[in-house]
Amino acid sequence: MYIASRPSACPGLLRIVPALDGGICRIKLNGGSISTFQAEAVAGAAERFAKGVIEATNRANLQIRGIGCEHAALIDSLLAVGLGPQTAAGDDVRNLMLSPSAGIDRQMLFDTRLLAERILATVQTNARFHDLSAKFAVLLDGGEALAMLEHPHDLWLSAVEQDNEKWLAFGLGGCPTDAPHSAVRLADGHALVVAVLDLFLELARPDQTRMRHLLADYPVAGFLERLAERVSLKSIKGWRRSFNCEVLHIGAHPQAAADHLYIGAVPPLGRLNPTMLRGAAQLAAEFGDASLRFTPWQSLLVPNIRTEHVAEVIRRLQQLGLSCEASQPLSRLIACTGSNGCGKGLADTKADALQLAALLQQQGRALSVHLSGCPRSCAAAHTAPVTLLAVTTGHYDLYFREAGQPGFGALHARNLTIEAVATLLDAHSRSPLDA
């Protein structure tokens, strides 16, 4: 079942891609969820066949870095615990993102997990959909309070309730915080996804691998007109998905079920070692429902913890080296692999992020900052409030997110050391204009 690597290919479970620090294997998790048994298998594979580095990704998946030559043995160990696709060719297209709190969120309008299972089964077993790009992505949003709404997707669906009926508003490209293009009945969600994917494959040229590429040449109105021939659409006017500014992926937060909470924990810069992953899995088995959920903020949730056990679980997560406090600067920083593991990286972003976290800690600041070793921005699919773009070893250009500005936002300063960045961020945070 092993799929050989090819130039510039995305890593997958069956395709291990080389990097400076060894091979990379990406394990796609249905809905970001993994059982404790599967987590143990990932930890064991990272120890036996790699250098013990496990990364949480910004699409709520896991990847193992530093893999040696035993590719087939690593893959077989993960397939044995059910972490593989239903078909070998279906691995690349398992790009369906849910809320990390799907099914347990107090604000959800419906439990997205059954619909997600149906969509994933369809894209994996229908050979036609295997022609989609490995980056073609779908978001299914059930209206949860904990939801990543800033990642652009080729197709997004978001639950909305109007006239005592549930609908799925949807957009072609962009994010749920954009105005929707139309809506379908909740019961037609699967049919909509199939129709959009079919129509995209019919209309797109080989070089148009993403929805935004197609819509640059093909009018949205024309796409919707043809879509309406396949599934019944409803106009949604004046509705926008509300954006929750609370940091809900870190710390303890109530679930829909009384006396149950989930606990969000952040591994340093998105990286776990086998001890961390095993320890979190053991806590999930002892106090939760024997599962972990990974998030697009490169963190994890331990769900279904009874109120009386929350303090103990947090204490033990912190002993493992995971942060459960949003006030800790390191829990708010994102950094790509950097020059230590990526040939395109211009700086050691991981080491520089640790230095920046220490400086922000001294200032008493916990800011959301993204360090990128090159313009590709692999670590963050969205525009972060602050981005540092490496220009050379230890030096970065500083950008602030600004409405209407594409890319990283507005350039604020060039060629800064980490010390200079910390000083500027402190001054910027104190500015009354930014209060």
TrEMBL record:
Alphabetized UniProt keyword annotations: 4Fe-4S, Heme, Iron, Iron-sulfur, Metal-binding, Oxidoreductase
Organism: Pseudomonas fluorescens
The name this protein goes by in its record: Sulfite reductase [ferredoxin]
Keyword Transport in annotation: no
InterPro entries for this protein: Cbl_synth_CobG-like (IPR012798), NIR_SIR_4Fe-4S (IPR051329), NiRdtase/SiRdtase_haem-b_fer (IPR005117), Nit/Sulf_reduc_fer-like_dom_sf (IPR036136), NO2/SO3_Rdtase_4Fe4S_dom (IPR006067), NO2/SO3_Rdtase_4Fe4S_sf (IPR045854)
Enzyme Commission (EC) number: 1.8.7.1
Domain Nitrite/Sulfite reductase ferredoxin-like: 24-75, 253-319
Every Nitrite/sulphite reductase 4Fe-4S domain range: 90-232
A GO MF label: metal ion binding
Keyword Kinase belongs to the record: no
Encoding gene (name): sir_3
